[in-house]
Amino acid sequence: MLDLRFVKEHVELVKENVRNRFMEVDVEGVVALYDRRNDLKARVDELRARRNEHARLMKSASPDERPARVEEGRRLKEEIARLEEELAAVEEELRREALRIPNLSHPEAPVGKEEKDNLEIRRWGKVPSFDFEPRDHLELGRLLDIVDFDRAAKVSGAKFYYLKNEGALLELALVRYALDVLREKGFDLFTTPDLARESIVEGIGFQPRGAESNIYTVEETDLCLVGTAEITLGGMYADEIIPGETLPLRFAGVSHCFRKEAGAAGQYSKGLYRVHQFTKVEMFVYCRPEESEGIHRELLAIEEEIHAGLGIPYRVVDTCTGDLGAPAYRKFDLEAWMPGREGWGEITSTSNCTDYQARRLGVRFKEAEGGKPRFVHMLNGTALAVPRVIIAILENFQERDGSVRIPEALVPYTGFNVIRPKAGG
Fold it and tell me: Could you tell me which residue ranges the Aminoacyl-transfer RNA synthetases class-II family profile domain spans (predicted)?
């Protein structure tokens, strides 16, 4: 969340940011709750001080004074209890409403509502030109016998899939390739839990429950299936103070990701592009506030290095305010060329969330030489999302006969350099 004193002192700025993000938040209502909370807290503190003074005077009260002192003590106790109950209710309402206020937006983030409003920064690689009619990844997956959607739908429902044969090996190769790049960059490597507490999910900025939630929850527990390792990596230091000399912390996590994808339909969501479960390698960084913009550029450069290393043509876009998501201050996306859609499709994003998530989770740092603890800045970036990269590989590196060339960087991990059609495929 944003610092509430900042919100109170910059109401118009915060309201303009909410409008630019096309969200609906009662900012002035939050400020009113903040003022009410502070007033109640001051009154409770004053009454507690009077109770303490009253207890001191009781010790020296004469028999004649004692009945009145007892009555005064009872009245103070009841008044404090009443105000504490009111304060607790106001604090909970304030917390709930304040969590709805999005992070501020970077001054250079393009103002807009939809993907078409994103700003293209640059392109890399050559979009392939075929002398035959190219197939999309669904047709190639069947022809090569590496993906099975039909049996997965029978077992788990729509938008699930089996990777099989060379497809299964391709997933493992992509994960290991990304991890090796990140290890060379100094990242600590993790495999992460697939479940996280609702408090952590909410702290990162996701909505665990409700009609708009994209998160699966486990009934009769406070656990959720994670939609990204950003949740589990970002929750590791909740309510902790990190020694300043250890910053920045660079983590890379491999996880399964689970997303409801409610309402995700249309030709661009078909096949592997938008699914309920997939494997992803995620980057996450805790750093000092003054480091975060530079590290954000580093994460983008790593994403570009990983995908350029695979030879996948892509473009970089600066994400518009309406498509940032509440926690992000600024976000860059990589979009790969996907011949099956004759257009670009998102394959990674990297976000600088400044101290927005840190405030919600209570993650601070303190320098060795002293001073007050400060909130860290937290950043995330997709190193590699397996299904979408498989789409890009299949569709960009296909041959006339339906075979697919494996990027040279992956061959040491796969043990093969081409996937050929299977008989009867």
Answer: 136-407
